[in-house]
Amino acid sequence: MSDPLVSVLIPTYNGGALVRDTLASLQAQTMRDFEVIVIDDCSRDDTAAIVAAVDDPRIRLIRAEQNRGVVLTRNAALSLARGRYIAALDQDDLCHPERFARQIGFLEANPAMVLVGTAANVLYEGAILPSALAPVSTPALIQWLLRIENPLVWSSVMLRGDAARRLDPFNRPELQYAEDFDLYHRINAFGGIARLDAELLTYRRHPGGASQRQATAMRDSATRVLAEAYAPLFGDDAAGTAGLIVAHVTAHAPVPDRPTLERVGTALVRLQEDFLATHRPDKESAKLIRWETARRWARIGRAGLRTGGLKLGDAAGVRPDHLGLGYAGIEELVLARLVGGVRSVQRWRAARG
Questions:
Q1: DSSP state of 338
Q2: How do residues 145-200 score in pLDDT, each as one tens digit?
Q3: Other CB atoms closer than 10 Å to residue 309's CB: what's the count?
Q4: How does DSSP assign 160-193, residue by residue?
Q5: Is 241 among the domain residues?
Q6: Which of 62, 85, 273, 317 is most buried (most C-beta within 10 Å)?
Q7: What CA–CA distance (Å, rounded) separates 264 from 275?
Q8: Number of domains in the chain
Q9: If you write DSSP's letter for every residue of 290-337 in order, what string do you get?
Q10: By the 8 A CB rule, do 117 and 84 touch?
Q11: CA dist., res. 91 & res. 9, Å (int)
């Protein structure tokens, strides 16, 4: 029996309500040469029975003997994988039919790339919502965004199997809730990372998701990842700078005051200048990098205004020189949106009397 082209890793735990649809989305793939490794982590519901009932020899169900958590379960799934490519997928997300075909085509055409994600939409309470991630990307933009946030949806990711197996461990348990972010940083040593801008995945967002339950742990783990990445540039200030970026760029926490806004701006400028100098992206990528960074800067300012930590003069007065857009001035993006936000608040307050 020949090895499959793709191995799909699905750790499951109490996913009985959604896992059937996830598996059906795999069966609808136009590229059919794959195996699905489902390891059930001692679910207390009927997850294992639902998976076992799917009549498809490509789907392998392994029942864990003890509950070990998603990270160790995913690592165990990789150890069983035989595919040339490894596809990530959580138990509740939905692949679009062309996902595998498009990602394999990209990786085979771009041998220097070791990982490719895709754009994704969001399914929440029955409605399909657009993703908040950058709508247009290049590998250089994804590389830059990895310095300040997580630009990829884990369930959309496909990796080269040989690179995935060089990671030891595949996912680091001590960085749970940001283990994917950590993996992207570590696998980058073996090649490039990219994203297809087509929406080839539907991410289910629901109140029981880990991102809602474990926000603090996620921030702490992401801070550790970025502190390691920032150490060569920031030295002893790496952890503090990483915490600042994770809080206000990655996690969207409002800045409490003008000095904090200034520190965030200074960190972003230094990070961006270093990235542009060391990676030397092409002109279009550089324009996207400046645009997406400025969008995040504007979002930080709007959040500070809306929560009362900033005054309009604060947001307008802190103007980092190198967060320009290429398409428009920073004042146009920041001031227009911030003034619009203030006016909306004023109208709301007036309406309430």
A1: H
A2: 999 999 999 999 999 999 999 999 999 999 999 999 999 999 999 999 999 999 99
A3: 16
A4: EHHHHHHSSSSS-GGGTTSHHHHHHHHHGGGSEE
A5: no
A6: 85
A7: 16
A8: 2
A9: HHHHHHHHHHHHHHHHHHTS--HHHHHH---TT---SSS-HHHHHHHH
A10: no
A11: 9
Mark whether 63 and 157 lie in a shared domain. Answer: yes
User: Beta strands 113-124 and 6-12: pairing type?
Assistant: unpaired
Q: Does one domain contain both 330 and 207?
A: no
Q: What does the alpha-carbon distance between residue 293 and residue 269 come to, in Å, rounded to a whole number?
A: 9
Give the predicted TM-score (pTM) of the model: 0.90
User: Which tokens belong to 210?
Assistant: 């880990």
Percentage with pLDDT > 90 across the chain: 79
In a domain, 341, yes or no: yes
At 198-236, the pLDDT tens digits run: 999 999 987 655 545 588 899 999 999 999 999 999 999
Instruction: Write down which residue in 187, 212, 237 finishes a domain.
Output: 212
Confidence of residue 328 (pLDDT cuts 50, 70, 90): very low
Query: 57-79 burial, b if ≥16 CB within 10 A, otherwise e?
Result: ebbbbbebeeebebbbbbbbbbe
Residue whose tokens read 């993996």: 183
Q: How many CB atoms lie within 10 A of CB 351?
A: 7
Copy the structure tokens of residue 243: 């915490």
Give the CATH number of the domain where residue 59 resides: 3.90.550.10
Give the pLDDT confidence score for residue 340 in this predicted structure.
44
Phi and psi at residue 54, in whole multiples of 5°?
-75, 120
**CB 310, CB 248: distance < 8 Å:** no
Helix (H, G, I), strand (E, B) or coil at 115: strand
Please identify which residue in the block is written with the tokens 């629901």. Answer: 206
Domain housing 156? 6-212
